[in-house]
Write a structure and sequence with these properties.
By secondary structure, this protein is mainly β. It has two helices and 13 strands; from the N terminus they run ββαββββββββαβββ. It is globular, with a radius of gyration of 14 Å. The chain starts with a strand and ends with a strand. It comes from Tsukamurella strandjordii.
Length: 150
């Protein structure tokens, strides 16, 4: 059993709350989402690795970490690929070995929202069947809190 940690501080919500049919419909996999809190005094927010493992893919707007037989996708915002990296900083590298809680990406939720996009962050167990991860009770979480187990 692997605990999956919150990659950002914010409001934990069901994946169905994501304003994107691919994520809300669990087409990528089952999971949860976090509406990130803004950084203190406008500072960027750091996305941390949800599990220990290897960074399989790393983009300004998304990361996949593979560990203990599970691939976890953290997608930073919706349609944020269109920002072409603006407002994002990579803090890790592909193929790097990371511990749960290690920094992966920093970003500005405020900038994403200013561009008219959603800053919500889906956290998905890749290639899992719908409803593999139970919808969570909505609550506030801090980066590093356990949000589900696989």
């Amino acid at each position: 059993m692997t605990d999956v940690l919150a990659p950002v501080t914010g409001r934990l919500v069901p994946l169905s709350a994501v304003p994107d049919q691919v994520f809300a419909g669990q087409m990528v996999g089952s999971g949860v989402a976090i509406e990130p809190a803004d950084g203190a005094d406008g500072a960027d927010v750091v996305v941390v690795s949800p599990i220990a493992g290897t960074v399989l893919k790393l983009h300004p707007h998304a990361a996949i970490v593979l560990g203990a037989g599970a691939g976890i996708l953290v997608h930073v915002g919706i349609d944020t690929v269109n920002l072409q990296g603006e407002g994002f900083t990579l803090l890790a590298a592909e193929k790097a070995t990371v511990a749960a809680g290690d920094p992966l990406i920093s970003f500005s939720p405020a900038l994403i929202r200013e561009r008219g996009l959603s800053a919500i962050c889906p956290v998905v167990l890749m290639d899992s069947k719908p409803d593999t991860i139970a919808a969570p009770a909505e609550r506030d979480v801090v980066a590093g809190d356990v949000i589900f187990s696989v």
